[in-house]
Amino acid sequence: MRFQLCALLANGLMLSTSHYTYSQEGCQKDQRCTMVVYSEQTDKWQIINKSRAERAFSPFSTYKIPNTLILLEEQKIDTKTSYKVDTHAYPVQKWWPSVWQSDDIKVKDAFSYSVLPLYQMWTNSLNKPEIKTYLSQFNYGNQDINGPLDEFWLNSSLQISAMEQIEFLRRLDEKTLGLSKQTYQTFDAIFLKQSTSEYQLYAKTGTGPIAKKTYLGWYVGKIENAQGTHYFAFNMHAPSFKEMVNVRVDKAHATLKALKII
Fold it and tell me: Which ranges carry the Penicillin-binding protein transpeptidase domain (predicted)?
């Protein structure tokens, strides 16, 4: 199961780096998706499919947001060092993208390209009491890390809803997670996905199987534009991994466009 899941995640990375388009239909009422947007300056919530927005799911790679914060705070990683996967602990698989096999992986690339075995190595340098303390401090999802130390965020014990993702991102921006100033500043640069003359996009994807012929896809983050800061959390179901990674980001962006955020 571990290698199958990793393969799906890796393949998804290669498919999801295409240019964003808005031809994809956005999330609609009663579809198997949700979008939550909170606009800070206007104190406005926009929610599509509220009951689903309140339903908790595995965070998959969106867990790299709190995980990176913990690792930075504990000084397990830094942005100047180059890293490589320990292939004795995590043997190279034929489906690994080339970036996973590099001897010169920076933290921002590990985050952006979801270098799972590297994050698993880093997480193994922590222990469950440490992680539990941080997730309680963050009030992140159900805070349940009873699953394997290097997999509890991969369709295992840790669960979080779209509404909870928003609240966590707001606490992150408000710097009320109990972390150092340096950690917040460093992570901000890691989280930045795209900067244009009209907006700055901070985002993280996450995808994986949760049941037979059922895949979950996440897209969470924030957009800063002339109207202020807009936090968003999107998730959807798809019957196949290929279908998921072909549409998840486009569908989320189309929804944000329909809600007049971008």
Answer: 37-240
Q: Helices 64-73 and 116-124 sit at what angle, rounded to 10 degrees?
A: 40
Cα(107)–Cα(118) distance, rounded to whole angstroms?
Answer: 10
**pTM of the predicted model over 0.85:** yes
Asked if residues 162 and 45 have their Cβ atoms less than 8 Å apart, the reply is no
Q: How far apart are the first and last CA of the chain?
A: 38
Q: Which of 133, 185, 139 is nearest to 163 (CA)?
A: 139
What is the per-residue pLDDT across 63-79, written as a single tens digit (0 to 9) for each?
999 999 999 999 999 99
CB 62 within 8 A of CB 218: yes
